[in-house]
């Protein structure tokens, strides 16, 4: 069993760390939020006071942080975590960040002899808890193979998208589509409700018709339709509006850099931006339904 440093124990990192503990690994954990650290410590992890302390003697390092600035800050800031990680250590950077940031951090890590892959995930908090996440990996094939036994304890599907940063490109494309689909699903359900339909009945119909998608199958935005979806828990937990907004911003940035056209992605970004500006940034992203609801 390995000694694993796990940094970033939020909605996703928390349950991912628990699955590594359940698999028998020795976890040393750090997060800025004391409550998140306590939950992992209660499950058997060793809590330490800094990221630098966490990576001491670690064979594997996992980070699950909000955005590019946090990842660059942790690895390359002052103090720079890459100065504290031993050469040869395997680093799984699982946050969703800009491909340019992922490449910058991976290049700096490689310069120190550290083996780093970008391994953003898909599958939501439900997938993190169940250990059924999809990992979308960018980096060297041999580093992915070394990471596979750990990834398999947290996820079910593992894809190699290409070189460093490629995992992030694929993840950004996926999440742009997810943002569009959640807004579209909300729009359709609100239209049905405004015309007298029961949203649960309409959801059942769409789930077996050509409009079906991940939201109608697993993550319905209408409260009460799915007991375990964030919509039925006042949109608490889950995937935050501001995190979706970040990912749609990354899609817009990638589109600009590559001269690609993403009109629906841009429209979705504006909808989530409006929603966030109305005080909903911390709610689960399926609360975009509230923009449409009468
Ligand atoms: P979160 O906000 O719940 O958790 C992030 C954690 O990082 C927090 O506990 C925070 O305290 C910690 N943190 C921030 N800066 C830190 C630092 N410098 N040192 C240590 N800890 C620090 O976010 P989340 O929902 O867990 O998402 C994490 C990443 O996973 C994001 O990039 C997100 O886009 C991505 N993601 C989330 C979901 C989801 O459904 N929530 C799904 C797929 C991917």
Question: How does this structure look, described?
Answer:
This protein has 294 residues and is α/β, with parallel strands linked by helices. 51% of the residues lie in helices and 14% in strands. The strands form 2 sheets. The protein has a 6-stranded parallel β-sheet. Strands 7-8-9 form a 3-stranded mixed β-sheet. Helix 4 links the parallel strand 4 (60-63) and strand 5. Helix 4 runs parallel beside helix 5 (99-111), helix 8 crosses helix 11 (241-258) and helix 11 (241-258) packs antiparallel against helix 12. The longest helix has 29 residues, at 166-194. The protein is globular, with a radius of gyration of 19 Å. The chain starts with a strand and ends with a helix. The model has no long low-confidence stretch (mean pLDDT 97). It binds nicotinamide-adenine-dinucleotide (NAD). Nicotinamide-adenine-dinucleotide (NAD) binds at residues 7-13, 30-33, 36, 51, 64-66, 70, 73-74, 95-96, 121-122, 124-125, 238-239, 243.
Quick structural overview:
The protein is of the alpha/beta class. It is built from 13 helices and nine strands.
- Give the termini distance in whole angstroms: 54 Å
Q: What would CATH call the class of the largest domain? A: Alpha Beta
In angstroms, what is the radius of gyration?
Answer: 19 Å
Percentage of residues in helical conformation:
40-55%
Helix/sheet category: alpha/beta
> Can you give the mean pLDDT?
97
CATH architecture of the largest domain: 3-Layer(aba) Sandwich
**What is the percentage of strand-forming residues?**
5-15%
Unreliable stretches = none
Total strand count, please? 9
What gross morphology would you assign? globular
Total domains, how many? 2
Q: From the 3D structure, determine the CATH topology of the largest domain.
A: Rossmann fold
Order of strands across the main sheet: 3-2-1-4-5-6
CATH superfamily of the largest domain: NAD(P)-binding Rossmann-like Domain
Task: Give the count of helical stretches.
Answer: 13
Task: Characterize the biggest β-sheet.
Answer: 6 strands, parallel
The bound ligands are: nicotinamide-adenine-dinucleotide
Topology as H/E string?
EHEHEHEHEHEEHEHEHHHHHH
